[in-house]
Amino acid sequence: MHSDSAPSLLHWQEHGQTFSAPWLSESRHAPPKAVLPVTHISAAAALQHLHQHTALLWRGDYHQGKQLLAAVKKRVRQKRKAAADFHTLRMQQAQQSRLFHLILVEILPGSVVNNRRAPDVRAALADVYGADNEAPFLLPLQALLGFIGAHEWHKKGVPVAALGGAHIHVPFGVFSPLRGEYLDLVAHAPLAPHWRNAWDIGTGSGVLAAILAQRGLNVTGTDTNPRALSAAAANLQSLHLNAQLQAADLFPAEGMADLMVCNPPWLPAQPTSDIETALYDPKHGMLRRFLAAAPARLNADGEIWLVMSDLAEHLGLRHADELPQWICDAGLRVVAKTDTVPQHGKAQRPDDPLYAARSRETTSLWRLAAA
Ligand SMILES: C[S@@+](CC[C@H](N)C(=O)[O-])C[C@H]1O[C@@H](n2cnc3c(N)ncnc32)[C@H](O)[C@@H]1O
Q1: Whether residues 221 and 165 fall in one domain
Q2: Domain shared by 168 and 132, yes or no
């Protein structure tokens, strides 16, 4: 699920010589067709190159590079027509993102950016790539800015009321419980006294595993994203909570569970980057496989807790009857359903293109048991 193919090698001419370097990008965009080093360029001229899929290798002042990227974004967004539906909007966003990822900076060995007034980005890059690079590579400035922002959030952490206000630290590439209304649903749902163990399927930052461990259960968390598993391990350790973690598609390799909790990707759509696999899942593949296979791994008198938003229904991507039907098809019944309303910023911003749907969104904890 996470792209591990070798990065494309890009070539360019500079000072009469040919240079090559790998192109790293956390997006799934196709590599540029050509690379042009520049120190000064207007946003209009830059856009002409970007539309031809020629990347600009920014050699000028770092802050002027940021200004160029901002000016390019402004121009592109001004020309944007209002999207008629969710899929058109996603397509539009992917096309724009491709353009924005074509302004590049060179990362020299040791994670150094040599542009004038460039900041020290070593810690931000170490968060994403682990060790310092030994050879130069090209990185979209857009991605670098994302890494720097993610690094700040990683350090700062997200306070979680259900963990007594303790912070969960989320690195780049891992789902953040920033909009945490669903956490209280899991923290307050009733536990049967005979339950001993719980599985957190798709553990992400480990936040639900931590809440369940704090409630006295013996927890195993799984994920397919290696970054999520290391983030979860670090969070559990700093909270002094115990849980086992496994790299697994859905369920742990062995055993049965008294309680299974799953907060799957909420929207049935194609992810455009690895980080989006936590949010978008074509045709709700993970959710449907989880529901179909979970009953066989659930102990008698156990429960499945499914965290789901109905945003997909308000966007016309899923019919309101479908989830109840999948639950029924799996041989499960709904024990109870508790709802909460998202408090996050986007739900309150009328300029967000999905505002109409977001303002009606409800997040629910579905408690399910064998029918
Ligand atoms: C919406 S996030 C939820 C993360 C965390 N449980 C939370 O509530 O904050 C979904 C998580 O499921 C993981 N995931 C997606 N498909 C998976 C699969 N087939 N098996 C295990 N984990 C998966 C993603 O990597 C991501 O970390």
Answers
A1: yes
A2: no
- Cα 278 to averaged position of ligand 1 atoms, centre (Å): 6
Residue corresponding to tokens 């491709």: 98
**Which CATH number do you get for residue 214?**
3.40.50.150
Closest atom, ligand 1, to C-alpha of 183? 8
Of 111, 130, 153, the position where a domain reaches its end is 153
For residue 206, is it within any domain? yes
Nearest partner of 174 among 274, 307, 25, 284, judged by Cα: 274
| C-beta atoms surrounding 111 within 10 Å | 19
Q: Say yes or no: 206 and 347 in one domain.
A: yes
Give dist(CA 204, CA 230) in Å, integer. Answer: 9
Q: Do 260 and 328 share a domain, yes or no?
A: yes
Where a domain ends, among 153, 178, 198? 153
* 83: DSSP letter: P
CA atoms within 13 A on the CB side of 108: 7
Helix (H, G, I), strand (E, B) or coil at 51: helix
User: By residue range, what is the domain housing residue 132?
Assistant: 8-153
CB distance 228 to 204 below 8 Å:
yes
Greatest C-alpha distance within the chain: 75
320-360: per-residue pLDDT in tens?
999 999 999 999 999 999 999 877 665 566 667 677 788 88
Q: State how far the Cα of 175 lies from the Cα of 306, in Å rounded to an integer.
A: 17
CA distances (Å), origin 175, targets 38, 133, 208: 36, 26, 12
Mean pLDDT of the chain, nearest integer: 93
Which of 208, 260, 274, 277 for mutating ligand 1's site (highest number of atoms within 8 Å of CB)? Answer: 277
Q: What is the pTM of this model?
A: 0.92
- The Cα 273–Cα 27 span in angstroms is 5
Indicate whether 250 and 290 sit together in one domain.
yes
Q: Which two tokens stand for residue 121?
A: 């980005």
CA of 284 to the centre of ligand 1 (A): 12
Choosing from 225, 260, 275, 276 the residue with most ligand 1 atoms within 8 A of its CB, the one to mutate for a pocket test is 225
